[in-house]
Amino acid sequence: MNQPANAASARTVTLIRGDGIGPEIADAVCSIFDAAGVPIVWDEANAGLDVFEATGTPLPESVLQSIATNGVALKGPTTTPIGTGHKSVNVTIRKALDLFANVRPSRSLPSVSTRFEDVDLIIVRENIEDTYGGIEHCQTPDVHQGLKLITRPGSLAVHRYAFEMARREGRKKVTCVHKANIHKLTDGLFLECFRQVAPEYPEIEADDLLIDNTCMQLVSDPTRFDVIVTLNLFGDILSDLCAGLVGGLGVAPGGNIGAGRAVFEAVHGSAPDIAGKGLANPTALLLSGVQMLRYLGLMSHASRIEAGLRRSLIDHVHTRDLGGNATTDEFASAVISNLPAPDASSQADAEAPEPINVGKTGPVVVSDENWECIGADMFVRNDGLPDMPKEVGPLKLSMISNRGTKVYPGPTPDILLVDHHRCRYLSETPITEADVRALIQAVGDKYAWMHIEKLHRDSAGERMFSRAQGE
Questions:
Q1: 0.85 cut: is pTM over it?
Q2: Structure confidence by residue, pLDDT tens digits, 364-402
Q3: Topology, domain 115-246
């Protein structure tokens, strides 16, 4: 592969070609970068299904070391088995390098037929927490559980990134998307952090919206949105929805941003069914590369490549997924032929802008001085409503629920009961570890218990750090 003429001053970037169609679209992007004279030297370090089959791991440690050393990577698609097999390479990279913000622009492209023609919005997705923690358990053979973890430091970091990015790019509004009407503690914390950060940016409008309403609004009028910041799972779904508004995942770029590290990637699948046939569309990876160039401060190179891409689309050079018949190589050649002539500014933009620095929020932001344990939820297995001890020391049985529906006290509702019951014990005064151990012993003498969750409150009475669905 040709290296830039000024290779001595070029930026080294990790290149992960991936598997399936990954290598061929990576080749297309690299050829365009070479033709545009982008001052980048590629440090190739592959990952994905092919690597897994050859070595037993889809993500060798050397790949993570390369990204950590270079600070920036461009990644092609990698295969993630569904329901079995190895872990997602994408998720593993994000977690291992603490790439806490996933940034997915959705912008209408010329001559790409869609319902809307003027979409220009950005999804900023919290990238580490939520159900993507992958903390799942089999409580009983019929009841499986996944934990949704939302933290104050993680939420503050992604919100500050969203506002800082909006300020840098001249965006006017940031919308927090959540489901805090139902997930009152987890999404409630995320929304609370948004409301804490928003006043620091008075020039930017801030509002919030429920996830279901957001979906309806997006497919009705996406122009009402500018920047959306949201939780991991909702962001995953909304990002693909917004990609559909502008032509699909084949034209959707993405970047994963951390403190001094970033990985830019095509977010579509590896499409092994068309691999090697010259049918793949390199647009998503190319636009991810453009996003990467702007991150590196190579603004004129990014603008030239994007202009060449848009001109090619105007000329109706489309791959099969966009209704055309251009091959991958033909599409890349068209972009190269449509590159505008370089201008003098390209010699002056090799310095990256100052990275968006959201700072390090410590592991504890809210003081636990008034944090009191006042009860516990015991989860037990039993066919039918269990006959739980009514009192154990200072703890009194206040509620039993099944699948989140209260079934005690009061008449048992006519619903399907599974063999997994949450039994809530509360005390009028703070309890000790000995009280919790006594509860475990008393319950364990009668029933097989699955796990226990301590319940806390602010001693000032301002907040109850627990919630029973349906109470």
A1: yes
A2: 556 667 789 999 999 999 999 999 999 999 999 999 999
A3: Isopropylmalate Dehydrogenase (3.40.718)
Architecture of 371-465 per CATH? 2-Layer Sandwich (3.30)
Crossing angle, helix 89-96 and helix 61-70, to 10 degrees? 50
State in words which class domain 1-99+247-352 has. Answer: alpha beta
Q: Which residues are CB-contacts of 333 (< 8 A; sequence separation ≥ 6)?
A: none
* Close Cβ partners of 28 (under 8 Å, ≥ 6 residues apart): 282, 285, 286, 328, 329, 331, 332
Q: Do domains 1-99+247-352 and 115-246 have the same CATH topology?
A: yes
3-state secondary structure (DSSP) of residue 98? coil
Contacts of 32 (CB under 8 A, 6+ apart): 286, 305, 308, 332, 335, 336, 339
What does the pLDDT look like over 216-231, one tens digit per residue?
A: 999 999 999 999 999 9
Q: Where are the domains of the chain?
A: 1-99+247-352, 115-246, 371-465
Q: 266: which 2 tokens?
A: 């095509």
Can you list the alpha helix ranges (DSSP code H) found in 118-248?
Answer: 152-168, 186-197, 211-220, 232-246
Burial (0-12, 13-18, 19+ Cβ within 10 Å), 468: middle
Closest of 341, 343, 320 to residue 331, by C-alpha? 320
* Residue-by-residue DSSP string for 1-30: -PPPTTGGGPEEEEEE--STTHHHHHHHHH
Is residue 81 within 8 Å of residue 232, measured between CB atoms? no
